[in-house]
Amino acid sequence: xxxxxxxxxxxxxxxxxxxxxxxxxxxxxxxxxxxxxxxxxxxxxxxxxxxxxxxxxxxxxxxxxxxxxxxxxxxxxxxxxxxxxxxxxxxxxxxxxxxxxxxxxxxxxxxx
Amino acid sequence: xxxxxxxxxxxxxxxxxxxxxxxxxxxxxxxxxxxxxxxxxxxxxxxxxxxxxxxxxxxxxxxxxxxxxxxxxxxxxxxxxxxxxxxxxxxxxxxxxxxxxxxxxxxxxx
Lengths: 112, 110
Hints:
heterodimer, A: mainly beta, seven-stranded mixed β-sheet, four-stranded antiparallel β-sheet, B: mainly beta, six-stranded mixed β-sheet, about 0% helix, globular
């Protein structure tokens, strides 16, 4: 039982490049989330998907897009990367909104 | 806005010591979760505790929802307890998403 799997684990981008972070869960959870973690800022919600077919903005959505591909997969896309998007990105899932969260191992992204 | 405050921000312990971490939240919550981020960056869910007390080995947590705080107790600390401890509050509403505190960084010395 893998839980929440994120790929890639590390990535370096040049300013203006695009990329997609992948997230998949095998726990049959309905809700999925993308957070970013910056030093001294804790974790901040970027986007979430309460259930398959729905997505909504969180606290810091600018510069990002998401796709809930199916119940298992929730991807995060950076269309034109900026140095301010250098961060560690975490995907999480829960059975439903308000239930216990399980996090992936994170993606460390550097934009130069 | 909604606030989740943790104290202390940093804590250094000798192995074997006990500690209490505190989480205050500014409004009534639907649930409260505690996480441990280990030195390799992994976030592990320790407790889902909207109210009352739960125990898991050397760790226990208590949430007093009416007074808007939660406590995480670590007894007989070990070096593997080192890392950052986050609490996160779910205020419900249309989003029902977790708002994280900034964490308590714990270092346990051998």
